[in-house]
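Explain this protein:
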Amino acid sequence: AQSAGYKPTVDLSDGIARYIGWIRTQSHIRDYFSEANEILKNKGIVHRVGR
């Protein structure tokens, strides 16, 4: 990114903290990953691997 001339105005830790703060202000956040994982498991696309 820097080689393209981009210079961030917020450092990584502050950016993450701001993002988490924003996420917490959002209502009705759905867990899309779990829902998608269940659909894929039910279709036999994703399998659980035992150890």
In short: The two ends are 40 Å apart (CA to CA).
